[in-house]
């Protein structure tokens, strides 16, 4: 018998482990360091998405865990990572912890968020949890719609080893394929009929390989 409502961050992460959702020590260690209670006030330690504002939610802890697990091999000290639709900032900060942005100046982590108020909300969350990140040149929260990244901005961003998308797209956006580095990995939910499916997309020798994972439920990746 599992309890779904926990009363502390550690008990939430331990319950994900007990339920077999976290079966990877690196995911466990990373998520343990990012207290969900700093990113959402209401029911932070329950395994459920929670409404933020502007029609967006912080994803459920089990979804964060499953996505992070897929990205662990491309998130290392020195990796370049982008969280598209960064929302609360939870996954962006997990990426920063895992790539050790504080110690490793080659690491580069960006959260890209379409709604200005939500981007500001994530900055407040990070101020509460890990304010030191906000003073770095290699960590940024950017208010921007991914579909509106110009050619020049694309050049400036460079290529990413790890791309996480926290909202579901009608089709794979070309911009994300372009931003993916050789041997990099992109995790993105894509609409399929009435459902959404999480995809793992990798680039090897310039070729794109798409792996269909499992059904999910995310908010929409908005075109404008
Ligand atoms: N991983 C985040 C998910 C937040 S919900 C978390 O757990 O907090 C998805 C986010 O994607 C929303 O904040 C929404 O505003 C943002 N979003 C939607 N379309 C976008 C787009 N085209 N470009 C950037 N962000 C977008």
From TrEMBL:
One of its GO terms (biological process) is methylation. Gene3D superfamilies: Vaccinia Virus protein VP39 (3.40.50.150). Pfam families: PCMT. GO terms for cellular component: cytoplasm. It is an enzyme of class 2 (transferase). It comes from the Eukaryota. PANTHER family: PROTEIN-L-ISOASPARTATE O-METHYLTRANSFERASE, PROTEIN-L-ISOASPARTATE(D-ASPARTATE) O-METHYLTRANSFERASE. Belongs to the methyltransferase superfamily. L-isoaspartyl/D-aspartyl protein methyltransferase family. This is protein-L-isoaspartate(D-aspartate) O-methyltransferase. It comes from Plasmodium vivax (strain Salvador I).
């Amino acid at each position: 018998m599992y309890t779904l409502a926990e009363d502390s961050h550690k008990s939430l992460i331990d319950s994900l482990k007990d339920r077999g959702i976290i079966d990877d020590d690196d995911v466990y260690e990373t998520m343990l360091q990012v207290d969900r209670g700093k990113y959402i006030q209401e029911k932070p330690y329950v395994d459920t998405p929670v409404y933020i504002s502007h029609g967006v939610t912080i994803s459920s802890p089990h979804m964060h865990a499953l996505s992070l697990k897929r990205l662990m091999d491309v998130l290392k000290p020195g990796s370049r990572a982008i969280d598209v639709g960064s929302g609360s900032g939870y996954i962006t900060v997990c990426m920063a912890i895992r790539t050790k942005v504080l110690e490793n100046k080659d690491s580069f982590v960006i959260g890209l968020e379409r709604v200005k108020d939500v981007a500001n909300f994530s900055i407040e969350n990070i101020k509460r949890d890990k304010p030191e990140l906000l003073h770095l040149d290699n960590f940024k929260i950017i208010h921007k719609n991914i579909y509106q990244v110009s050619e020049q901005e694309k050049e400036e961003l460079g290529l990413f080893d790890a791309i996480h998308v926290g909202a579901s797209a009608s089709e794979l956006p070309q911009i994300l394929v372009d931003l993916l580095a050789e041997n990099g990995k992109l995790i993105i939910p894509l609409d399929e009929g009435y459902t959404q499916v999480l995809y793992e997309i990798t680039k090897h020798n310039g070729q794109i390989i798409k792996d269909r994972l499992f059904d999910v439920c995310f908010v929409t990746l908005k075109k404008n």
